Amino acid sequence: MFDLPGSWVWDYWFADDGERYHLFYLYASRALQDPDARHYRASIGHAVSTDLETWTQVPDALVRSDAPAFDDLATWTGSTVRHPDGTWFMFYTGSTLAEGGKNVQRIGYATSPDLEVWTKHPGAVLEASGPWYETLADDAWHDEAFRDPWVFADPNGDGWHMYITARAPHGDPAGRGVIGHATSPNLREWTLQPPLSTPSETGFGQLEVMQVEVVDGTPVLLFSCLGDHATASRSDARGGTWAVPADSLTGPFHLDDAYSLTDETLYVGRLLQRRDDGQWLLFAFRHQDADGRFVGGVTDPMPVSWVGGRLTAAGVTVSA
Questions:
Q1: 94: DSSP letter
Q2: Listed residue (90, 30, 24, 31) closest to 57, CA to CA
Q3: Mean pLDDT for each 10-residue chunk of the chain (320 residues)?
Q4: Owning domain of residue 274
Q5: Distance of alpha carbon 222 from alpha carbon 269, whole angstroms
Q6: Among residues 76, 146, 238, 283, which one has the fewest Cβ atoms lying within 10 Å of its Cβ?
Q7: What distance in Å separates the CA atoms of residue 105 and residue 72, rounded to the nearest whole number?
Q8: How far is 248 from 152, CA to CA, in rounded Å?
Q9: With 0-12 CB in 10 A as exposed, 13-18 as middle and 19+ as buried, what is 184?
Q10: What pLDDT sits at residue 7?
């Protein structure tokens, strides 16, 4: 497990350079006392490992920019990929406050030759806009949700895709969460596309920290959503991390078919394939204890397999 004695650790993502695994994670000082205050103090830390269980903390990756900037409040969750020329790209969420104190999220990136020293690209490359995506002007949610970029190469070699936690500007506010989508030929210039899912009465207010992988030959989409951010039909499931069957890495995706992979004790489930034996593993951060209090810290790896057509993780029981 990875945790820090002086800080809360929560959302995270991985990179594999062929020799070491890199863990990038959000953290904020426990001196804040209230764990709910951590979001507006988040920086992106960095740790490395050779076995995915023992981690060594190294210098941080990114911190917020000086105001005014799209990331002058905090730097939030992202993903890391390698360009064919060897450059590493870290896509991340920049958070700032709009007039009235509501949070606005945009997507930016930084580059590195070695995963150690990162240089931010100036300004955001993507933000929410109509007609496809809800903005603060719609006044239906507590923030302008446009975050958690998951970037991957097109399976057919046609550039790059980005999936984004976003919301549609129509439908039940508790079910407006959609798979935001953007494309790029080179990782630097991005074009916003229509969402890859639709709002639903059995849906979710937000699809946090998405990831799509082909696990043992079967495509699957993962995202996270708490019960109080979903429609009434989903709220009793206490699903922390959800899995969605998919036809391919690029969909189609049917969110009505989502099922719980973890409950709310574990959040932000992510998949990583172990290099030496090809085993797919699930990680998560510890979200709640038995009394519902925030915990934090990234778990040790949990092997996953398909059981009855559903992805399951060893040792994880989904409570009702």
A1: E
A2: 24
A3: 98 98 98 97 98 98 97 98 98 93 95 98 97 93 95 97 97 94 98 95 92 98 91 75 95 92 96 97 96 96 96 83
A4: 7-313
A5: 7
A6: 238
A7: 11
A8: 13
A9: middle
A10: 98
pTM: 0.96
Asked if 1 and 299 touch (Cβ cutoff 8 Å), the reply is yes
Q: Give the separation between CA 128 and CA 104, rounded to whole angstroms.
A: 9
Is 2 part of any domain? Answer: no
The verdict on residue 284 lying in a domain is yes
CA angle, 177 then 189 then 94, to 5°: 50
Instruction: Tell me what pLDDT residue 58 has.
Output: 98
pLDDT at residue 239, rounded to an integer? 75
User: Looking at residue 200, what is its pLDDT?
Assistant: 86
Look up tokens 């935001």; give the residue.
Answer: 180
| Residue among 141, 209, 127 at smallest CA distance from 170 | 141
> Which tokens sit at 18?
């062929």
Long-range contacts of 5-10 (CB under 8 A, 24+ apart): 6/30, 6/31, 7/45, 8/35, 8/38, 8/294, 8/296, 9/45, 9/285, 9/296, 9/297, 9/298, 10/38, 10/267, 10/268, 10/285, 10/287, 10/296
Residue 320 lies inside a defined structural domain of this protein: no
Q: What is the pLDDT of residue 230?
A: 84
Position 100 scores a pLDDT of 79
Q: CA 272, CA 246: separation in Å to the nearest integer?
A: 18
The C-alpha atoms of residue 270 and residue 49 are separated, in whole angstroms, by 17
How far is residue 78 CA from its own chain's centroid? 6
Sheet with 310-313, strands from edge to edge, namely: 266-273, 280-286, 302-307, 310-313
Phi, psi of 28 (to 5 degrees): -155, 150
Contact 103, 93 (CB under 8 A): no
Q: What are the structure tokens assigned to 307, written together?
A: 């059981």
Find the CATH number of the domain harbouring 80: 2.115.10.20
CB–CB of 203/175 below 8 Å? yes
Asked if residue 144 belongs to a domain, the reply is: yes
